[in-house]
Design goal:
The structure holds two protein chains of two kinds.
Chain A (H helix, E strand, L loop, with lengths): L2 H25 L6 H29 L3 E13 L2 H6 L11 E12 L2 H22 L6 H20 L3 H19 L6 H32 L4 H4 L14 H18 L8 H4 L5 H10 L4 H8 L1 H6 L1 H24 L3 H30 L6 H19 L4 H12 L16 H12 L4 H32 L5 H7 L1
Antiparallel strand pairs in A: 1-2
Chain B lengths: L1 H18 L9 H10 L26 H12 L7 H10 L4 H12 L13 H10 L7 H10 L12 H19 L7 H4 L13 H21 L13 H9 L3 H17 L15 H9 L12 H8 L4 H12 L6 H10 L2 H12 L12 H23 L10 H8 L8 H15 L3 H5 L3 H13 L2 H27 L13 E5 L4 H12 L3 E5 L8 E4 L7 E3 L8 E7 L4 H24 L3 H11 L4 H9 L1 H12 L8 E4 L18 H15 L8 E8 L22 H12 L1 H9 L9 E8 L4 E4 L10 H23 L11 H13 L15 E5 L7 E2 L4 E5 L10 H26 L12 E4 L3 E4 L11 H4 L8 E5 L2 H10 L1 H8 L4 E5 L6 E5 L2 E4 L8 E3 L2 H5 L9 E3 L10
Parallel strand pairs in B: 1-2, 1-7, 3-5, 7-8, 10-12, 10-15, 15-16, 19-20
Antiparallel strand pairs in B: 3-4, 5-6, 8-9, 11-20, 13-14, 16-17, 17-18
Chain lengths: 481, 1032
Amino acid sequence: MSVLEILGIIVVASPAALVVILGLASLFDRPFSEKWISQLVQLAMITGLLASITILGLMLKTDDRHIPIELGHWVVLADDASSAMTSHNPHANAHEHLIYHFSLKFEFDRLSVPFVILTFVLCGTIGAFADKYMHREGGFNRFFMLYAIFVLGMVVTSLAGTIETLFTGWELVGLSSTLLVAFFQDRPNPCRNGLRVWSVYRLSDCGLLMAALLLHHVSGEGDFDLLMGTGAWPEGVARLPSSQAFTVGLLLLISVAGKSALVPFSGWLPRAMEGPTPSSAVFYGALSVHLGAFLLLRVSPILALSPALSGLVVALGLATTCYSALCGRVQTDIKSALSFASLTQVGLIVAEIGAFAWLGNRWKMPSLLYIPLIHILGHGCARTLQFVRAPTLLHDYRILENAIGSRLTLLPPQWVTHLPQTWRDRLYRLALHRGYLDAILQKYIVTPLFSVLEKCDQIDLSFTRFVNGADQDTHKNGNGG
Amino acid sequence: MALRLRHDVAENGESSLVDSVESTVTQTEWIETHIREAAGLLPAQGPITAFAFLNTLQALENLPFEAGLRRGQELFGYETYLSEERYREKLARGRIRLEDLSETLKRDLGQRCQTAVGPSGNLFNLRLSMLEYSMRMAPESELRWFMAETDALTRYREEVSPESGEIRTNETRRWVVEEILPNPASPWHDFFPELRGRQVEKWTHAQWTAFALHALWQVCREGVRNLPLVTTSVSMIRHRDLLLAATGFDCDRLLQEVMIPFCAGFLDQGLATWVLPHREQGLWKTFVSLYSSGSSVETWLRPLRAELHRLSGLTPAQVVEDSLEQLGISREDAPEYLTRELLAMRGWAGMIWQAEDRGDRIARPVPPGTLLEYMAVRLVLLRMALLDAMRKESLGDRKLTELRALLSERIPPVESTSIDQRAFEVFQLAQLQQWSAAALSHLSEDQWKSLIHEIEEFDGPSRRRIFHLAFERRFRTQALDALSLHNQEPRPPKSESPLFQSVYCIDAREESFRRHLEEVCPRAETFGAAGFFGVAMYFRGVSDAHYQALCPIVVRPRHYVIEEVVYSLAESDRRRSGARRRLATASHRIHLGSRSLTGGALLTAGLGVFASIPLVARVLLPATTSRLRRTLGSVVAPPPVTRLRIERLTEQPGSEGDAIGYTVPEMADVGERILSETGLRTRLSRLVIFFGHGSFCLNNPHKSCYDCGACSGSAGGANARALAAMLNDNRVRRVLAERGLVIPETTVFLGGLHNTATDRFEFFDLDLLPRTHIPDFETARDALEEAARRNAQERCRRFYSAPLDITPNDAHWHVENRSEDLAQTRPEFGNASNAMCVVGRRTLTRELFLDRRSFLVSYDSQLDDAESTILGRILGAVVIVCSGINLQYNFSYIDPAGWGAGTKLPHNVTSLLGVMDGAASDLRSGLPWQGVEIHEPVRCLFAIETTPDSILKIMARNPAVGNILRNGWSQLALIDPETSAVSLYEDGTFVPHECSIDQLRSATSSREFYRGSRDHLDFAEIHPSRVTSPPG
């Protein structure tokens, strides 16, 4: 094992160990004291951070741009089962022999390493913040348990070398986000909003799972490095036919839209502000909300194949940006205002990815993709600081007013003043109701879906009745059947 | 008052209905009047940046305390006492003693103590055991399981001693052998089949015990079987409550989705960049113009547009009336219905009312009548939501007016206690009361009836009430013991003249500071006065943009005072304030820009990564980072030498130019008043320092509730500074001398500010200090700084994140870190744990450890006249302020999620006026949990050094003070000015206090007494000379 591999394993193992330790303690109902928890969290974060920084240093020094670390094959199915079973290195065989293989594999490259470093820096800082912020709160242990799961999910997702590994991390992030939104479980609103976040996340997972399935169907495997072809990120060229690239990309786009709260799923993001401030900061200001954009960066070679697809990505990104810039203007509470501000940039980042993936390919300038990456990193840091300082807002405003010497003047959007009055009112109302997105989803997707399900239930029931043959005692048998 | 007024309003309303034949204008007048009256029930604390401490149930202060609690509970549905478990916990920890419980119970029952209940024993014993032991209560099915599967029927409860159990078993045995077995006709044979054909003589002891319990259970069941069950009918007046009970659908949720963003937009003070259009036309018109065009996606809002067109042309009051009619609310029900609807979102409604009523307190007030318009909007939306609910419940063909009746039919009847549950309670009590089955079997039906009645009358709320009274009694006894014992022997007057004197706010936080100062420097004297020091003014600091009111919330000041840079530094000031303005404008642009599209993109993509530097630094090294920032900021800070512009040249006070300030006679009035109230006038030393106080902490929307309550939630340094400047003025001194108040020429006054979060001081106008007084000042400053370090240490004992063995120096650093830490939710504990207020000379409490639990007000009865004018003036402010603070803490502690603001963690600053929980909720009023965590909910105990006559006169003169003290919203005790004898005000009479202990605990220093302890401490005498006595 090389030094790099050991370091790579440390990066993944430190949050994993944290999850196991905190998890076992919680499982046996012997949670650690606050002091212990905070020290364990700090230890895991610092270890992970140091290891990942060292990796970055070594990669820059050796100019090694792509380091895969494989942790064994979990499932291998091949045409000729015996040959696959005996072979320890399926890649040595021509990979078209494989029907399916699932390996736990991590990749360190110029996309994943900065993202992992960002994760450790922000999670470490916010962990230290939350240690004081959550002091003596009933759910202290629960918070840090979920927090550890989240960090593990983030690390696994960013480093994932196969789409299955990515899905694992993706799920962990989703689960911990949802449970932290519903952290204050004794009030109905957090639970309701947590559930809403969860349903959108599940929809997004559907997209990702179907994309994974399709990828396997096309290429027999979910490894990014083979799928994305020759070069290390961002220079990879995908090996998919353009039409299939479009379908896979479309499915991925659904999952990206759900995870990064793009239109039309944007409604959940402001609703997710139910948890304690530090979790809102790191999840919806910095990391979780960028995960969709990260996935797009990871599969950017697919985008490059299809102009229609990248056009769609750009359109979706710009729509989200416009939508959230409009809604953000009328928000009267700081957390909603910040979440829409966050979304504005996420939309823009997505649009940048769509545009640069395609342009980079055409102009042979793949390094254009560094722009959205830098945008993500910068936006994550800046927004986290703003979220953490949100409770200081009143204090800040007072200082500003004192220095300026008058009330702060508000700058209504310029273009709005050119509209006729009724249009202005309608636009304001549209923004106040957050573009009716939730109502539209409810009305045109959720309600019809429910009525279809109810129909199915009725058909099921009447069929049961028919099979039982007895109309009069259907009530008794209905449940049993 | 609210109750009576409501009644009046109802009557007025009826008469106006009669009048309506002639006039349609007065028809809706009652609605307007009623809304204004009911608004008194809404939270009165106003914008969060100027937190006003008032009794949460202020509108009910005209009722006796307990009646007020009942009404409050009924209206709001929040708890008014802690849970029984919490009280039992306190019982176990000794915060309540059994003695307090039994004394309280005795007092409560009075004559009824000895009423016989059950086979033997009396009402007092029955209730005491109901208090002492927790009774198991369970739903029917759980109960069945419990009886069948546990040892409930084979062993006595664990509280029953083996001997006592033995006696009960033997009684049962005798009953069986002597009464049941010889008498074949006894009905009990049917109940005990095991007696039949068995050889009871051969039964073992365990078998008899089991039989005794089994028999007891059967007898109890038989006893209560035929008693009528009490059916409790819950009356619900709001549609929402009925709908929720009948269908599980909460229509308030729908309403909130529309009303919260709308109200927040309407009240917004500048958070959103796009202001609600037509806001200036008032709430109702804004709503109409926003919702009467375009169609709604939400199904339930579909009919809204047509409805708003129908209502156009009506006044808001008429809209309310129309809605009431359509909702089927009769004229008698209407006032109560409106009150309930108003309280449904009391945070927002309360803020609207404050913005309407106290427009001087916020930047963008709203016009009068807005609360009524809010009600109009609410009822229209409510109708939309109800129509939608009716459609979903397939009631679409019915009328809205019928809805309440229809829903009432659907609500399943409320289940009262079942026979088994009743029997089970008697079964448990019988064991504790030592009643055997034999004894119970002889009870008549009437006796059973009265037994059950007595048990059920003493239900949960009644028990908690007794617990609470006992809890208060425990603290009261300790406090009055301490005051009596400490003042047993009159203290010889100090022969030495004081080195220096300092005056503080009455705040409970200053108690520990003053104690430490007197320990550090025994020749220092301290005084307490309401922290605005009689200088009620609008004040604007040198770097402030606006005036702010520095006086209690009930006062509207007339005078204006500003701080300005001395003339010689004016040029430098101009440059620096220009730089500050440019920097701030830039940073405001960045603040808004980071949230916009293009600005945000440039900022985050370009510079975002650098945000990680302040992020990491501020989280990990808060105090160091803030010192660095301050050093950098000092480049543009205003020059250090400033003066107050305090002398007025014009006739009338005003906010500009020569109209700013006070005239010399007015200054003399202010000075005379404060020197008389504190008793300083006859004993002035060379140096007298007034300390205002304030709290400086970051990341805390509730910062203002840590500031000075007597300065409307601002820092009171400017008041102290102004007062010192006035009293140092020779012209003022001459006027005072003419009035007989001679200030020695050698006396110099100084103003200062005590930062209660960091325990640091700031002194004002030191450049004016005469050379002769510099040594005096330096002595005082050193003593103050040492006292501050010790005070920080005493405060740290309550912070779990500070080690118990922290040194004074480390403690000082620790509290500074706390105040600068973005993540710190408890920068300090404010006035939490306040429980009493001593009004009198400092000698009453000097060298007494009061654990930061007492407000201290200086008052010298010898300087007062026969009518107690001075005391009346003091109490007029102090009783209202202290009981307001105390009750606000009490309610926020007792039901933190209801009366209080809940935990701070999900708080979300909204409209720059308040906080919501998470993404959207009602505005949270009250104190956050982190601020009240260490509080103990007891009503404030006023201990006043005066005579019964004087206090009764004052209570009669000042109705607000009278209401609070007479109706029991605070407790009252008197300390006789001559003999120092303590008496307690109970039911209108003054009862001499009898000490429950002979001697107070004592220690040689405060430090020695509190060392190693986190919890509340007893009172103790701090005597540097005496040796420590063992705990008493």
